[in-house]
């Protein structure tokens, strides 16, 4: 977070960073650091939300390929927001979040139903393929809605890539209650997700209400995805990379995995934002592009593993 305040298109000395944290904006460097504070906070909360949502989705579906971007959840939220703005004149920041959450929920349900068709039910690769196809279709629909509308095309073009630029504490305040609710639902599901990992029948034999656990955890993940997409756009691959990295560090117990996914997700997105600001000075590369460059090779690696191919 301190690096995010210090590095960007304009380098800021550490003394100016500490002065900005104290509320000073007397010099240009201090003003730059002050402007970066809400951007850094937004990167932290969105990264944590996406990392947690990915870990929960992987636990709910028992699918190592699950990710809000890969399963089409983020793009479903994007299509809902774009359609609401273009056809219904949506302008309320809170309305954006409600609409995005509804779109994320419908998209997640659609992908799961499509992935469950045919022999074998909802296998990991079938869900990934259904999610990829749904994401591609929704992305095309988003373009079809936005391109003819010059009045909204400019503002949505950058939002579609995914980024935390232009952050403000007002925007964070609008999305924070939804994120808190999503965090609570997901973290409270940790013990139930441990039982689901053993299989539905064994989980039920241990006294878990499988449908309730899966529904509550999925609802928390959908709320996190919808709120994150509404404020930062459809940022992909954070929810895929982070849970796998956390399993290597602390194991598969969701009581530890979920909090660590929040921490590592926040770290990854904040670092990606810093990299995007530094490598193309004085311009910027949106954080959604940086995470895609990191996540796409990792996704290919996961798919090519023998264990996943066997699933």
From TrEMBL:
<keyword id="KW-0812">Transmembrane</keyword>
<comment type="similarity">
    <text>Belongs to the binding-protein-dependent transport system permease family. FecCD subfamily.</text>
</comment>
<feature type="transmembrane region" description="Helical">
    <location>
        <begin position="96"/>
        <end position="115"/>
    </location>
</feature>
<keyword id="KW-1133">Transmembrane helix</keyword>
<dbReference type="InterPro" id="IPR000522">
    <property type="entry name" value="ABC_transptr_permease_BtuC"/>
</dbReference>
<feature type="transmembrane region" description="Helical">
    <location>
        <begin position="285"/>
        <end position="303"/>
    </location>
</feature>
<feature type="transmembrane region" description="Helical">
    <location>
        <begin position="256"/>
        <end position="279"/>
    </location>
</feature>
<feature type="transmembrane region" description="Helical">
    <location>
        <begin position="127"/>
        <end position="147"/>
    </location>
</feature>
<feature type="transmembrane region" description="Helical">
    <location>
        <begin position="69"/>
        <end position="89"/>
    </location>
</feature>
<feature type="transmembrane region" description="Helical">
    <location>
        <begin position="217"/>
        <end position="244"/>
    </location>
</feature>
<dbReference type="Pfam" id="PF01032">
    <property type="entry name" value="FecCD"/>
</dbReference>
<keyword id="KW-0472">Membrane</keyword>
<keyword id="KW-0813">Transport</keyword>
<dbReference type="InterPro" id="IPR037294">
    <property type="entry name" value="ABC_BtuC-like"/>
</dbReference>
<feature type="transmembrane region" description="Helical">
    <location>
        <begin position="40"/>
        <end position="57"/>
    </location>
</feature>
<keyword id="KW-1003">Cell membrane</keyword>
<protein>
    <submittedName>
        <fullName>Iron ABC transporter permease</fullName>
    </submittedName>
</protein>
């Amino acid at each position: 977070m301190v690096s995010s305040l210090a590095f960007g298109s304009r380098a800021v000395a550490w003394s100016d960073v500490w002065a900005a944290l104290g509320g000073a904006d007397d010099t240009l460097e201090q003003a730059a650091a002050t402007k970066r504070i809400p951007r850094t906070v937004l990167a932290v909360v969105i990264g944590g939300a996406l990392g947690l949502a990915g870990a929960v989705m992987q636990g709910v579906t028992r699918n190592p390929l699950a990710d809000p971007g890969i399963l089409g959840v983020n793009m479903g939220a994007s299509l809902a927001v774009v359609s609401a703005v273009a056809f219904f004149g949506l302008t309320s920041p809170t309305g954006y979040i409600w609409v995005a959450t509804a779109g994320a929920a419908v998209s997640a349900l659609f992908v799961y139903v499509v992935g469950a068709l045919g022999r074998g039910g909802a296998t990991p690769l079938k869900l990934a393929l259904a999610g990829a196809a749904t994401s591609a279709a929704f992305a095309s629909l988003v373009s079809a809605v936005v391109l003819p509308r010059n009045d909204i095309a400019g503002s949505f073009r950058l939002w579609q890539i995914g980024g935390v630029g232009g952050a403000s504490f007002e925007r964070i305040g609008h999305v924070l209650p939804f994120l808190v609710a999503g965090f609570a639902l997901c973290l409270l599901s940790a013990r139930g997700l441990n039982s689901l990992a053993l299989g539905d029948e064994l989980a039920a034999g241990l006294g878990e209400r499988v449908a309730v656990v899966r529904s509550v955890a999925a609802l928390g993940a959908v709320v996190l995805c919808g709120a994150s997409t509404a404020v930062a756009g459809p940022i992909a691959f954070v929810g895929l990379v982070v849970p796998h990295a956390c399993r290597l560090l602390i194991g598969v117990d969701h009581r530890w995995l979920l909090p660590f996914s929040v921490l590592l997700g926040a770290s990854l997105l904040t670092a990606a934002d810093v990299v995007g600001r530094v490598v193309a000075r004085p311009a910027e590369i949106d954080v959604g592009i940086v995470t895609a460059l990191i996540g796409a090779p990792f996704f290919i690696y996961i798919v090519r593993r023998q264990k996943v191919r066997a699933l």
